[in-house]
Amino acid sequence: MARLRAARAAARELAWAQLAETRRPVPATTVLGRVLPGFVLDIDATIVLAHSEKESAAATWKNSFGFHPLLCFLDGSGEALAGLLRPGNAGSNTAVDHITVLGHALAQIPDALRFGSPILIRSDSAGSSHAFLAHIRSLREHGLDTEFSVGVAITAPIRAAITAITGNDWVAALDGDGSLRDGAQVVELTDYLDPAVLAAFPAGTRLICRRERPHPGAQLSLFDQVNGMRHQVFATDTPHGGGSIQFLEVRHRCHARVEDRIRTGKNTGFGRFPSRQFAINAAWLELALTGIDLLAWTQALLLDGALAMAEPKKLRYRLFHVAAKLSRTARTTTLRIAANWPWTDDLITAFARLAALPEPVT
After folding, report:
1. In angstroms, what CA-CA distances link 99 with 30, 103, 107?
2. Which uninterrupted H or E stretch holds 337?
3. Could you give phi then psi for residue 236, rounded to 5 degrees?
4. Rounded mean pLDDT of the chain?
5. Confidence (pTM)
6. Angle at Cα 186 formed by Cα 120 and Cα 74, nearest 5°?
7. Contact 236, 206 (CB under 8 A)
8. From the candidate CATH numbers 3.30.70, 3.40.50, 1.10.10, 3.90.350, the one assigned to the domain spanning 2-302
9. Which value, in Å, is the radius of gyration of the alpha carbons in the chain?
């Protein structure tokens, strides 16, 4: 597994170098029209069902049966940086698993970019364990410019702080396009919280709350039902001057894009695990992540327009499963593609760009 991860890291460094030389830098995360510097890493777990007895498959917290892998994706490009296959009953907020996945993900970023580039780690409340946040902060001692933006469970002290805030302190929340979000507001809780609550977080941590009118069918806590609003809280150590609380809230909410990465990832390979042996399935997960990377590099290096943003299912239909014939004459191999296929020109252009990619200097 270590050799496979090392090979993926080497291939990533080459693909990024080819991308920078031929087309553009590695795609960055954009929030409200603002390009975020450095890298944004999204960590999230998912349930993968098992329909037969397999090693380490177990009952999950969703009352199903299978595995509970933890994954990390690079938000800007959609690359799958790391994954850890875990039993179905693995904890959602296990700090050691988050630390392991983050370590593998950081190792996938080339050294020249990993050191000196800002790195934002986003997660839902499963990543808010104090041990994991302390680890993210400790990475600064090793030369990494790391920050976090993680969901936080609403505890009694946080509920008390929310209740103490007057209506004038709430400001309108924003949608992803920068327009005002109807019925939604945000406020910073940091100054309203008991200092003992903040003492458990790394120094400089800020807590920001968003409330909005619940949509029909939303599952609300008793606190939300009493107040008639749905509340969500996240913690970040981005200092003042790094953006308004509306910007930071939208930036954190963009973590939801990882759900699409996982959904398409399951359609690419890790939606099923084929073996009864856990080690084989762990290798399968790593290979599935490799396939996700290959798709991301293909789109960034070779494709344009809608195909550069297409999901794997659409790519398979339009490009990878195209009817064609290999013919060999006079020591020349020719790929003959159906002339009336709507995406023939896109495929020919992709092959031409592939052939023109610069070779690494060894």
Report:
1. 26, 6, 12
2. strand 332-337
3. -145, 150
4. 92
5. 0.92
6. 20
7. yes
8. 3.90.350
9. 23
> Rounded distance, CA 8 to CA 283, Å?
13
Tell me: pLDDT of 272 over 90.
Answer: yes
CA distance linking residue 218 with residue 213, whole number of Å:
10
Q: Measuring CA to CA, which residue among 224, 326, 260, 262 is closest to residue 71?
A: 262
Band the pLDDT of 148: cuts 50, 70, 90.
very high
| Pairing, β 206-212 against β 230-236 | antiparallel
Instruction: Please name the amino acid found at residue 15.
Output: A
Q: Are 309 and 301 in contact (CB under 8 A)?
A: no
Pairing of strands 80-84, 206-212: unpaired
In this predicted structure, the answer to whether residue 64 has a pLDDT above a threshold of 90 is: yes
Domain ranges of the chain: 2-302, 305-356
- 184-215 pLDDT per residue, tens: 999 999 989 989 899 999 999 999 999 998 87
The whole-angstrom distance between residue 249's C-alpha and the CA centroid of its chain comes to 17
